[in-house]
Design goal:
The protein is α/β, with parallel strands linked by helices. The protein contains 16 helices and 7 strands.
């Protein structure tokens, strides 16, 4: 028998430190935001043709979270899709019941755009959009905090000490359960903290463990309450691929190498503004049915089983592009998937790899290091196919 705790039910105000801004604060917060030089600089950088004064006047008409999404974010993201992709698409809608709130867990491709593009897909289909989890390590300036909290984001505290980490995880989990169970809204969270540099997407058990902390039941019941839906994100080209290779190289030279705050900002800019090719989202089936039927018992087993189900769904849902087949064949030294691409595809992809590797700004790169960098970039593009082949997809 499950012993249910009888702790006081949380209230919305309990989460003021991490939740998005209320609608009644919108005008005040936007009025402050548009006066920040950093915000103006960012807007002009991302939209060089913008009439900033006109943009400010439009912002000042925004009255609510939904207004902000439909009037500001939707058109901005459509502009970004047109300028930096060869199309944004979504499949798997048959797996989604929009009358229910879900926890969407995706692989982590881009710091800013994972959740933004998912919500744009929902806006296009006139479906409910999600609240978004964002790490406070990205909130470098106060105006960025204001911007993300205006943009339906809630804060994941990652700068806590060891003692505070568990309490922060409980608080975050309680908020996510509150949003799903009481507010009846969906949330988005990445399957791991930080992106998988080699595109070997695996769910971090600490993320699922955090989700299991909230609620009134045992670990399995708490996860079932969240209606977890895995979502696969497939980029044809990763604008940050050469920056990831650079990091691999520098870490190979010095295992203690760590990126700077400037590196993180540049990665965000590159991911936002550079070419991505085609981008596809696939909504997998909610894992609740399989998780409920599983024989996993105890938090550790339940968390591991949930991660396995999430990983399998994400791997099975990848959209595989010609470049993934080419990279796989080059890494393995075979022509296993030669029927999936043309000679022109190979030439174009090899030229792309060469162009990206030439951007790596590290001094005195040896021939051995160049071979290493190329192998790492090919592995990055081969891994989605490799993981899909290893997953049991029920096809």
């Amino acid at each position: 028998m499950t012993l249910h705790t009888h702790e006081p039910q949380p209230k919305y105000d309990d989460f003021a430190d991490i939740r998005p801004y209320d609608d009644h604060l919108f005008h005040e917060k936007i009025s402050s935001l548009v006066r920040q030089p950093g915000f103006e600089h960012a807007v002009r950088y991302v939209m060089p043709d913008v009439d900033y004064e006109q943009f400010v006047q439009k912002l000042l008409t925004v009255k609510s979270q939904m207004d902000f999404q439909l009037k500001i974010m939707g058109p901005f993201l459509e502009l970004l899709v047109a300028r930096t992709t060869d199309g944004l698409s979504m499949s798997g809608l048959e797996n989604y019941d929009p009358s229910k709130a879900h926890t969407f867990i995706t692989n982590h491709r881009d710091i800013v755009l994972d959740a933004s593009f998912l919500n744009l897909c929902f806006i296009r289909e006139h479906l409910p959009i999600t609240q978004v989890a964002i790490g406070n390590n990205l909130l470098i300036f106060d105006w960025i905090t204001d911007l993300v909290k205006l943009n339906r984001s809630f804060i994941v505290k990652r700068d806590t000490g060891v003692r505070e980490a568990l309490e922060a995880a409980r608080h975050l989990s309680a908020y996510i359960h509150y949003v799903i169970g009481t507010m009846k809204e969906s949330v988005w969270i990445a399957q791991r903290e930080g992106r998988a540099k080699d595109s070997n997407d695996l769910t971090q058990e600490s993320v699922v463990k955090m989700l299991s902390l909230g609620g009134q039941g045992d670990s399995k019941e708490n996860l079932l309450d969240l209606s977890i839906m895995p979502v696969s994100i497939s980029y044809e080209y990763d604008p940050n691929d050469y920056l990831k290779v650079r990091e691999f190289l520098l870490r190979r030279r010095d295992p203690k190498f760590k990126k700077s705050q400037r590196d993180d900002l540049f990665s965000m800019e590159t991911g936002l503004l550079r070419h991505k090719g085609r981008v596809h989202f696939h909504l997998g089936k909610c894992i609740s049915g399989e998780l409920a039927r599983s024989e996993a018992e105890g938090r550790a087993q339940v968390v591991h089983e949930a991660c396995t189900l999430i990983d399998r769904s994400i791997h099975c849902g990848y959209y595989i592009y010609p470049c993934n087949y080419i990279a796989h064949d080059e890494v393995t030294g075979t022509q296993t998937y030669a029927d999936k691409y043309t000679e022109a595809d190979v030439k174009a992809f090899d030229a792309y790899i060469d162009t990206q590797l030439a951007k790596v700004d590290v001094n005195d790169i040896s021939d051995d290091e160049r071979t290493f960098m190329r192998q790492m970039m090919l592995t990055m593009y081969a891994n989605p196919l490799k993981n899909q082949l290893n997953a049991v997809c029920g096809r």
